[in-house]
Amino acid sequence: MKQRAVARRRGKEVSEADGVDKPSGKVVGGTDGLNKLSVLFATGVLLGLVAEQVVLFAVPLLIFHDTKQVSTLGFAFALEWLPALIAYPFAGMLADRDGGARLFTRVATMRALILVAVVLVCLVRPGWLVPALMTGGACLSVCVAPIRMSIERMVPQLARDSQIATVQSLVQNMELLAMALGPALAIVGAAVLGKLPLLLVAAAAFGISALTWLPLPRPKVRAAVGWVAREVLAELATGWRLMVQIRPVLLLGILNFTINLVVGVLIVSNAALVTDVFKAPDSAYGLLNAAVGVTGLLNLLLMPALLRRVGVGPIGVTGFWLMCAAFLIAALAPSYWVYAPAFVAMLVGDALYNIYNRTQRVKVIPIEHLGKVMGPFYLLNLLSYPIAGLLIGGLGATIGPQRLALWLGIMLCLIGAVLLPLTMASFRKALLARENANVEVVT
After folding, report:
1. DSSP class of 224
2. Which helix (H) or strand (E) holds 338?
3. pTM of whole model > 0.85?
4. Is 211 exposed, middle or buried (0-12, 13-18, 19+ CB in 10 A)?
5. Under a CB-based contact definition with an 8 Å cutoff, are residues 118 and 199 in contact?
6. How far apart are CA 167 and CA 173, in angstroms?
7. Which spans does this entry mark as compositional bias, Basic and acidic residues (predicted)?
8. Which residues, 6+ apart, have CB-to-CB distance to 13 below 8 Å?
9. pLDDT tens column, 350-409
10. Domain with CATH 1.20.1250.20 in the chain
């Protein structure tokens, strides 16, 4: 009886933190309220991602057209991602203390202001274009961490365990949809306004995304918690310790690091490959990203039914091997018309794998420590991006980005053949142990 009482009390505490009605366990506002909140949640995520895609379209082209060097793209990519790595653990702590919505709104507003400042500098001092874009990219990179942590923190507040896969697939599909809308908007905007004014369009999208999250649940801020160095270090240590102790999360982080390193090399060099190696116009670069996003529309329609019929495990495996096969084809592609479909298929496979990645990790991390664990988890994942940029910066001009991608693609296939089954088996074991523990508490 004591165990059951404790379980009920713990359930109430979690429910209060997650914006859930204490007596009934239902989301505050009922089903209609949840649907409205989900729409606002998805809209804010989509607008932020569309803005990111517009920036990702404009900035590499502006830098490459100004310097004509693929190595500059690599070093710019590395410079942009390094600050984000430092920010992720602290962003996870902020999301745990804040709850997510408040942090998202503030940081999205900050992103809009950064872009406005970059455009003003470029207009006043045209000779500072590349340094201004790199500096702005680094500042935006710092903002990515709290935005991602806010989204991770909001998902459990809007969905129960049985709905987490659906909400995570919604987030993943918003990313793909943004890859359709963002480049399409960027192509039209670049033709009408020019590439630099596109950054003001992205700033407006960031600002509106901040407004859409204003009505989302905002738990009371943990007023008693300060930012004393000892307390901050203790929370950071807790996050790292839990990530290492939760074996499936650690294995998943290592696998994700490898994937991001390999895929990052192709993403970094994408603008140079399309416009320089394959001699395609700028519009082809935008259409390539838009084609990836169109598949997001199909995913958005098909994924809920597919999840009910198949489950996240087979979807993750299919996505991983589709990504590997398409990556190798892109690395060997002799022309744009071979490269483009392979690049699209690679990112579609990555998106399918990410549904498994995002769904499973949330299930095995204690909700009260989710942000603290996801901070170092993201740091481990994204450490690969600046490394990919440095690889392109150092080796891209000598051995070529495609040959480098081919070597890394073969490495990913070999590592994935071993690590993916181990990771999935570890998740099954952890989830089974959790279910057994819940049954014992109830009985």
Report:
1. T
2. helix 336-364
3. no
4. middle
5. yes
6. 10
7. 12-24
8. none
9. 888 988 888 888 888 887 777 778 878 878 887 888 888 888 877 777 788 889 899 999
10. 32-217, 229-437
